[in-house]
Design brief:
Elements: E1 2-6, H1 9-26, E2 31-34, H2 41-52, E3 61-64, E4 66-68, H3 79-86, E5 98-99, H4 108-121, E6 126-129, E7 151-154, H5 157-163, E8 176-179, H6 182-186, E9 190-195, H7 201-209, E10 227-232, H8 233-236
Parallel strand pairs: 1-10, 2-3, 2-6, 3-5, 6-9, 9-10
Antiparallel strand pairs: 4-8, 7-8
Helix pairs in contact: 1-2
This protein binds 2-amino-2-deoxy-6-O-phosphono-alpha-D-glucopyranose (GLP).
């Protein structure tokens, strides 16, 4: 696992964008694994800028990590709405080539199986990750088995609390989500985890220096052959 220390959020976003754009330049049909949360937003802004300057996403496909159960495209709080708002609606990607789990599916088990099959059929050149302050990746909370595939999770109180800032009322934060599993995250050829801010410092430390343990889902990246953690000064502080 490689760790890149950058000065601030701007640099973090630039490093992330450079890696993603590099993959598109290598292969115009690259499959990108994408993440939500506030951390990758600066990187998405730079991808939008790159698209305006000639980098085409026309043949690119995307697979997102997760979605809240019971939220879909009609909800502004869903991850599908987030991705449209922060990226997809501003680049030349074919929206049919963008994929997220369907949080509104009637049969969630069937939806998990459908999404797992899609992941298997679409090998990712790169998977972008954020980091929960408890070390979660996607919505794989501590104690999620490393061999997990796409599944429904009950979010921890800490995650509900951390994500409440993005909702008008804390009561509106869904308690369940569908997430890509850890084994599936690890199948991406390259993994780039972005971590910014002092509230991620503990999780960054555990991921990089801690033992590889299901107690810290991000520590699994130590076992990946091409994983990069990009951390700004505050997130890097305990290393
Ligand atoms: C959510 C998402 C994660 C994300 C995390 C951190 O829980 N499911 O994929 O990494 O939030 O979010 P932020 O980047 O806003 O700190």
């Amino acid at each position: 696992m490689k760790v890149i220390k950058v000065k601030n959020y701007e640099e973090l976003s630039a490093v992330g964008a450079e890696i993603v754009i590099g993959e598109i330049k290598k292969n115009a049909k690259a499959v990108l694994g994408l993440a939500t949360g506030s951390t990758p937003v600066g990187m998405y802004d730079l991808l939008i800028k790159a698209c305006r300057e000639g980098v085409s996403f026309k043949n690119v496909s995307t697979l997102n990590l997760d979605e809240y159960v019971s939220l879909g495209a009609d909800s502004p709080d869903s991850y599908v709405s987030f991705m449209r708002d922060k990226l997809f609606d501003h680049i030349d990607i074919d929206i049919k080539n963008t994929h997220l789990p369907d949080g509104n599916a009637d049969d969630l088990d069937k939806e998990c199986a459908r999404y797992s099959a899609l992941i298997a059929a679409m090998p990712r050149a790169v998977q972008v990750l954020g980091l929960g302050r408890n070390g979660h990746i996607g919505f794989n909370e501590p104690n999620t088995p490393f061999d997990s595939a796409t599944h429904v999770v009950e979010l921890t109180a800490d995650t509900v609390e951390a994500n409440a800032r993005l909702f008008e009322r804390k009561e509106d934060v869904p308690r369940f989500a569908i997430t890509m599993g850890i084994a599936e995250i690890m199948q991406a050829k390259k993994i780039v985890l972005l971590a910014s801010g002092a509230n991620k410092a503990q999780a960054v430390y555990a991921a990089v220096k801690g033992e590889v343990s299901e107690l810290c889902p991000a520590s699994v990246l130590q076992r990946h052959g091409d994983a990069v953690i990009v951390a700004d000064e505050d997130a890097y502080a305990l290393l």
